[in-house]
Amino acid sequence: MGANSLEDSFGRRFSYLRLSVTDACNFRCVYCLPNGYQRSEGAEDHLSLAEIRNLVSAFTELGMWKIRLTGGEPTLRRDLLEIITMISENTAVKKIALSTNGYRLKQMAGELRLAGVSAVNVSVDTLNAQRFSALTGSGQLPEILEGIEAAIALGFESVKINAVLMKDTNESELALFLSWIRRRPVSVRFIELMPTGQTEAVFKKHHLQSNPLRMQLLEQGWTIKPRGPADGPAIEMSHPDFQGSIGLIAPYSTDFCATCNRLRISSTGGLRLCLFAEGNHSLRHLLQRSSQKEDLKQTIHSLLNKKEVSHYLPEGRYGNNQTFSSIGG
Ligand code: SAM
Ligand code: SF4
Ligand code: SF4
Question: In this structure, which ligand is nearest to the CA of 264?
Fold first, then answer.
């Protein structure tokens, strides 16, 4: 089985692995973990460094070259830098990205860069400190923004902000975000709120389509960048007067899944074929020894045949996803 052999029945190729390293989090975002993280009794431990090494080795031999570390909050893991260093020693990995709520970014940005992270995505749904506290349970917006400045100064290849669009909360903040990125090389990605088992009510109350935002941006002279062959489902927009850019992630839009290029692994080693799939396929038993690699590759390959063409969100089905914190969003 050679490189680039991860292709599903619909001709989509998978180059991008989203690896959750913990399901724990210290924030309580209303659309993700509204009651905060609670470890369930008898819950399995997160993958060890050795298990992650075996996993990444198999996936890269199947053609994956971009790895995103996510969670829960990945910076809560004490051995995060060791994980990153170990992954960056695998020469087939061309890009290591990190998704974080940013609470330790100011202190950690330098170490993360040195260890091998080249792209950071920080969740900042609002630039208003009071609203930020209400949405996340954290009073740390100023420090998080300083962490983003530190990441820019350190020359990360890409610094992105993820902002979940919500009716009656941050929907009026477009102008604020735009003035913030006028002189900062940061991409703000507006993500449409998605339903999960724990947050159905929040979804019903606050879901907002991103299309009106797109129209507003087009009217203000923003243009949609052409899509590269390895690009995922986000729409990227740029404007000559702005150093930063805008991304829109609109899962309800037509053909959103046609460019799906990613697979997900839960913190306990479950392969999730789609964010909205009905379940995970545990790979953990195949991560115990490096000698299991061929078996592991074979298993991943055949599981990929089960990947469906799209999600079923318009039909009101979102799989058994209770919260994105268990699978990294
Ligand atoms: N804790 C890190 C963070 O917040 O960036 C990484 C994990 S978090 C689950 C990954 C992404 O999922 C975040 O950008 C978050 O905003 C997004 N997310 C979580 N729940 C969501 C929901 N119901 N709808 C849309 N995006 C969601
Ligand atoms: Fe934690 Fe990220 Fe979920 Fe917020 S979105 S609760 S920071 S895992
Ligand atoms: Fe891929 Fe599923 Fe996301 Fe569609 S919803 S882009 S199929 S992971």
Answer: 3
Q: Is 105 helix (H, G, I), strand (E, B) or coil?
A: helix
Q: CATH number of the domain that 155 lies in?
A: 3.20.20.70
Helix (H) or strand (E) holding 18, with range, is strand 16-22
Per-residue pLDDT tens listing for the chain (329 residues): 555 579 999 999 999 999 999 999 999 999 999 999 998 888 899 999 999 999 999 999 999 999 999 999 999 999 999 999 999 999 999 999 999 999 999 999 999 999 999 999 999 999 999 999 999 999 999 999 999 999 999 999 999 999 999 998 998 999 999 999 999 999 999 999 999 988 999 999 999 999 999 999 999 999 999 987 677 788 999 999 999 999 999 999 888 999 999 999 999 999 999 999 999 999 999 999 999 999 999 999 999 999 999 998 988 888 888 899 888 88
73 C-alpha to center of ligand 2: Å? 7
Residue of the nearest CA to atom 10 in ligand 1? Answer: 329
CA distance 207 to 170: 12
Shortest-distance ligand to the CA of residue 259: 3
Tell which atom from ligand 1 comes closest to the C-alpha of 192.
25
Please tell me if the CB atom of residue 233 comes closer than 6 angstroms to any atom of ligand 3: yes
What is the reported pTM? 0.96
Q: What are phi and psi of 249, to 5 degrees?
A: -120, 110
Does 23 reside within a domain? yes
Whether 321 is in a domain gets the answer no
Ligand 1 neighbours by CB, cut-off 6 Å: 25, 31-32, 70-71, 73, 99-101, 123, 162, 164, 191, 193-194, 196, 199, 324-325, 328-329
CA of 298 from ligand 1 middle (Å) equals 31
Domain that holds residue 37: 16-315
DSSP code, position 322: S
| Residue whose token pair is 């389509």 | 209
**Exposure of 289 by Cβ count < 10 A (0-12 exposed, 13-18 middle, 19+ buried)?**
exposed
Structural domains counted in the chain: 1
Amino acid sitting at position 307: K
